[in-house]
From TrEMBL:
<feature type="domain" description="GHMP kinase C-terminal">
    <location>
        <begin position="249"/>
        <end position="325"/>
    </location>
</feature>
<dbReference type="GO" id="GO:0004335">
    <property type="term" value="F:galactokinase activity"/>
</dbReference>
<dbReference type="InterPro" id="IPR006204">
    <property type="entry name" value="GHMP_kinase_N_dom"/>
</dbReference>
<keyword id="KW-0299">Galactose metabolism</keyword>
<dbReference type="InterPro" id="IPR006206">
    <property type="entry name" value="Mevalonate/galactokinase"/>
</dbReference>
<dbReference type="InterPro" id="IPR014721">
    <property type="entry name" value="Ribsml_uS5_D2-typ_fold_subgr"/>
</dbReference>
<keyword id="KW-0418">Kinase</keyword>
<dbReference type="InterPro" id="IPR000705">
    <property type="entry name" value="Galactokinase"/>
</dbReference>
<feature type="domain" description="GHMP kinase N-terminal">
    <location>
        <begin position="67"/>
        <end position="151"/>
    </location>
</feature>
<dbReference type="InterPro" id="IPR036554">
    <property type="entry name" value="GHMP_kinase_C_sf"/>
</dbReference>
<keyword id="KW-0067">ATP-binding</keyword>
<feature type="domain" description="Galactokinase N-terminal">
    <location>
        <begin position="3"/>
        <end position="36"/>
    </location>
</feature>
<dbReference type="Pfam" id="PF08544">
    <property type="entry name" value="GHMP_kinases_C"/>
</dbReference>
<dbReference type="InterPro" id="IPR019741">
    <property type="entry name" value="Galactokinase_CS"/>
</dbReference>
<dbReference type="Pfam" id="PF00288">
    <property type="entry name" value="GHMP_kinases_N"/>
</dbReference>
<dbReference type="InterPro" id="IPR019539">
    <property type="entry name" value="GalKase_N"/>
</dbReference>
<dbReference type="Pfam" id="PF10509">
    <property type="entry name" value="GalKase_gal_bdg"/>
</dbReference>
Length: 349
């Protein structure tokens, strides 16, 4: 059986999902493919990564296979799972902020559910993948990535209220523009980065304010905070507001407004949440000077990719950017032409 799960791009709502905020992602037409069949042990083969991993115990291996092993651990709490061979292939760049790990987790859980007739819903699969990432892999992420990879619908964004874990489909109306992704060539590794530290800083801010969650915080509460805690909370509050404004702009067909919110989000992620880097800032500033409607860093930060809202002629502008960027920095950048996609699905028996 072969299953594929898409990567995702978050239009806006960055670093809000683990703070009970609003996010507005959509799935993209770049995928992680997982083929499964019965075996005499657990075998994990990747056409993109080394090494091949074989084991008869679902314990940590400190390899890429831990994303799959984490899923198997959680499903096996409730269901009996026999030995399985996994063959993984992907055209989704790892470390580019496009949720390759969530795609692998969700594809694995969906494949196992189908292989063993477990009848798990896609929402249940998303929550299993969320637990695996947090409890087994150790990245304290929110639910956005797993929800988007599992539940998305083509030609729609997914508006998720991560506080109550509800979601709605929002039509992607951005004519005459479209979305592009620039991969900066700088790979990040969330579990070994500042990502978990940002989450801890937000949790500390909640304790200082004596609030149970970010929904209880108002802009007036910023007066009670100082330093990094004030900056982190201010970003989350303003970013939540930008998500709602972006949804209104989508519904009204006001694409240029969406671009403005992208630039505002990047400024906040750079100055308040401090998860950008020199190379990404250079890309965004270059695009702004070229009068591109919108751009911002996406993903966990400290590298990864830039989401761009632009017209059909953007590849020509990117060619100029590529020359300047690669002269200035020791990285190769690439342009991904993306369209929206459905969430996880079976693509072969």
């Amino acid at each position: 059986m072969k299953v594929r799960a898409p990567g995702r791009v978050n239009i806006i709502g960055e670093h809000t999902d683990y703070n009970g905020g609003f996010v507005l992602p959509f799935a993209i037409n770049k995928y992680v493919n997982v083929e499964v069949k019965a075996s005499n042990l657990y075998r994990f083969i990747s056409k993109n990564m080394e090494p091949t991993v074989e084991t008869k115990k679902l314990t940590r291996t400190n390899t890429w296979a831990d994303y799959i092993i984490g899923i198997l651990n959680i499903i096996s709490e409730t269901y009996k799972i026999d030995f399985v061979e996994f063959v993984i292939s992907s055209d989704l760049p790892a470390g580019a902020g496009l949720s390759s790990s969530a795609a692998l987790e969700v594809a694995t859980a969906y494949a196992i559910s189908k292989l063993f007739s477990l009848n798990l819903t896609k929402k249940e699969i998303a929550l299993i993948a969320y637990r695996a990432e947090n409890e087994f892999v150790g990245t304290k992420c929110g639910i956005m990535d797993q929800y988007t990879v599992a539940l998305s619908k083509k030609d729609h964004a997914l508006f998720i209220d991560t506080q109550i874990k509800n979601y709605k489909y929002i039509p992607l109306q951005i004519n005459p523009y479209r979305f592009y992704i620039i991969n900066s060539g700088i790979k990040h590794k969330l579990s070994n980065s500042e990502y978990n530290r940002r989450r801890e800083e937000c949790e500390t801010a909640l304790k200082i304010l004596k609030k149970a969650n970010f929904r209880e915080i108002t802009f007036n509460d910023l007066k009670k905070l100082q330093g990094i805690y004030k900056k982190r909370v201010q970003h989350v509050l303003e970013e939540n507001d930008r998500v709602l404004k972006t949804i209104n702009a989508l519904k009204a067909g006001k694409s240029l407004e969406i671009g403005k919110y992208l630039y505002d989000s990047h400024k906040s992620l750079k100055e308040l949440y401090e998860v950008s880097c020199e190379e990404i800032d250079f890309i965004v500033e270059y695009l702004k000077q070229e009068k591109i409607p919108g751009a911002r860093i996406i993903g966990g930060g400290f590298g990864g990719s830039v989401l761009v809202l632009a017209g059909e002629n953007f590849p020509k502008i990117f060619s100029k950017l590529k020359t300047v960027y690669e002269t200035r920095y020791p990285y190769k950048i690439s342009l991904l032409n993306i369209t929206s996609s459905n969430g996880v699905e079976i693509v072969g028996k």
